User: Which sequence fits this backbone?
């Protein structure tokens, strides 16, 4: 690969996208471009203390701001955009998490309606030690303080949906979006199927860390300084977002009910084994059944997201996605980031 072009983007408060689709591109980029990005947290930076309740400082539906979209030159429906995460670093020394009334997995919601009163709004401010790579949990109702390792990730990355759709940045689906999987960390490559000319790639929703499932609906939300390399695979279709790490291939599925999200991710993994690793469909089904890991991503968004991941060391020596993950890892190493 030739030396990549580096584009630095630091959006002003009024320059974020709130949807996938329906927003004009902020820049046109050639495949191979390195994007050095600032992304704001899901609250648009408005939850800064325990007194800042989401219902008072945020304006629905303007939640989960995205940096972008970026028009990828040459991208057409039927292609795949590859996003390699070189680095994901918290931009501040603090992060915020909350409970939100009628939102989350262990409370009544608008669609799971009961006579229970909504949970109260409560804010936790997490202190981040970026040098030591830790996030400090401070209990609200006791003197408990527990230091956890940071595991920075992006909850949201996606492209414009198909069929002229415009989707809120809060929604995960086949275009990507708010999948909230901890697998989206530095060192991985995310593959997204292109639905419109230019793909219109955006990302945001940085998390200093998040448990699988994001049970209360809110992670350790923080602004991020993130570097990605964007590449294009012509003529390669990707029906659902896929992730490749050094150790695993990972399929995602987003839907409700949860069983359908699970089925989508498992089926996509089976089809991946058939396309790139030489399995028949039934052999892939049997092999995946006995080897797959199935962590939850989120069980709280408008669609739930499940993940199906499989260790590369157990797979035949075959090339997937034209060996792009390995090439992008080499480019990232050359950047010295």
Assistant:
């Amino acid at each position: 690969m030739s030396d990549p072009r580096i584009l630095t983007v630091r959006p002003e408060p009024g320059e974020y996208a709130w949807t996938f689709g329906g927003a004009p591109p902020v820049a046109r980029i050639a495949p191979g471009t390195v994007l050095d990005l600032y992304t704001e947290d899901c609250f648009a930076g408005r939850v800064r203390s325990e007194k800042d309740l989401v219902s008072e400082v945020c304006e629905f539906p303007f939640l989960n701001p995205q940096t972008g979209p970026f028009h990828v030159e040459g991208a057409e429906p039927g292609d795949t955009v590859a996003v390699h995460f070189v680095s994901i670093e918290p931009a501040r020394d603090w992060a915020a998490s909350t409970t939100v009334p009628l939102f989350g997995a262990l409370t009544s919601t608008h669609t799971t309606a009961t006579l229970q009163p909504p949970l109260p709004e409560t804010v936790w401010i997490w202190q981040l030690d970026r040098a030591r790579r830790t996030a400090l949990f401070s209990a609200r109702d006791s003197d408990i303080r527990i230091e956890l390792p940071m595991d920075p990730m992006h909850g949201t990355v996606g492209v414009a949906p198909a069929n002229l759709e415009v989707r809120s940045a809060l929604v995960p689906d086949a275009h990507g979006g708010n999948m909230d999987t901890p697998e989206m960390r530095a060192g991985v490559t995310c593959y997204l199927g292109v639905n419109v000319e230019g793909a219109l790639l955006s990302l945001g929703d940085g998390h200093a860390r998040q448990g699988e499932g994001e049970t209360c609906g809110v992670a350790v939300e923080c602004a991020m300084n993130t570097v990605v390399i964007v590449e294009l695979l012509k003529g390669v279709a990707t029906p659902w977002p896929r992730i490749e790490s050094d150790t695993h291939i990972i399929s995602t599925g987003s839907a409700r009910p949860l069983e359908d999200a699970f089925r989508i991710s498992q089926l996509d993994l089976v089809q991946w084994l058939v396309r790139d690793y030489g399995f028949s469909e039934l052999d892939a089904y049997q092999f995946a059944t006995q080897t797959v890991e199935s962590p939850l991503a989120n069980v709280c968004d408008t669609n739930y997201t499940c993940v199906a991941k499989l260790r590369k060391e157990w797979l035949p020596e075959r090339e997937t996605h034209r060996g792009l993950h390995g090439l992008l890892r080499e480019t990232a190493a050359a950047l010295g980031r």
